[in-house]
Amino acid sequence: MSALLEMQDVHCYIAKHEVLDGISLSVDEGELICMLGANGAGKSTLFKTISGLIRPSQGTIDFEGEIISKKGADKIVRMGISLCPEGRKLFPRLSVKKNLMMGAYTRHKEKADITAALDEVYELFPILGERSDQDAGTLSGGEQQMLAIGRSLMNRPRLLLLDEPSLGLAPLIVTKIMETIEDINKRGVTIFLSEQNARMALEISTRGYVMENGRIVLEGKADELAGNEEVKKAYIGA
């Protein structure tokens, strides 16, 4: 595997507060890796920085050999990075299908490919196909999360950033979501997963990082992190 994404000594400030403090990491082609950390650790800021929604004050972000640290979010999306944000951020008064089509706005001229991408999303999440004309705001929480993930896939991303996909969902729905994330990865999409449900995240990941106060304090193979006593006490509850 070759590195798809690399970050070197990335710092980021929000309202004069340093949220990312020297982040260095890599995501290899085809991997499914996770970022563990408590609320406020900086995980969402990390993903927004990779996506171009927040500009780093220092350091470099490299995607497929090209520096993207100073590129706008629209250009980064076109390069093949999609963010599925925490909290879903759907358009509640638009239909399921229209929400999905929003994810393909950078490729609006590629009609045949968009149709194929839509079919793939409906294959992954059949309930979305059944409810394609229903307003997104009337879906259950689990269905809304499926829609958010589906929307992020409409761009046909090389790298999919999933920010807290299990947040607020019932355990059975979380299991389904995690199984689908595995399936998406097996279909060839590299995935970087931010998740508070450490146990499930490590079960489906190959590698992981642990973030505290804007710094990476631990990294390793998923099974190694799952067996680490500090990780168990802090994130798994053992």
In words, what does this structure look like?
By secondary structure, the chain is of the alpha/beta class. The protein has a domain at 1-80 and 158-170 and 190-238: P-loop containing nucleotide triphosphate hydrolases (Rossmann fold), CATH 3.40.50.300. The protein is built from 10 helices and 10 strands. The chain has helices at residues 43-51, 73-79, 96-102, 111-124, 126-130, 141-153, 171-186, 198-204, 222-226, 229-236; strands at 3-14, 17-28, 32-36, 58-63, 66-67, 81-84, 159-163, 190-194, 207-212, 215-221. The strands form 2 sheets. The protein has a 6-stranded mixed beta sheet with strand order 6-7-8-3-9-10, sandwiched between helices. Strands 2-1-4-5 form a 4-stranded antiparallel beta sheet, with helices on one face. β1 (3-14) and β2 form a beta hairpin. α3 (96-102) packs parallel to α6 (141-153). The longest helix has 16 residues, at 171-186. The chain is globular, with a radius of gyration of 17 Å. The two termini are 33 Å apart. The model has no long low-confidence stretch (mean pLDDT 92).
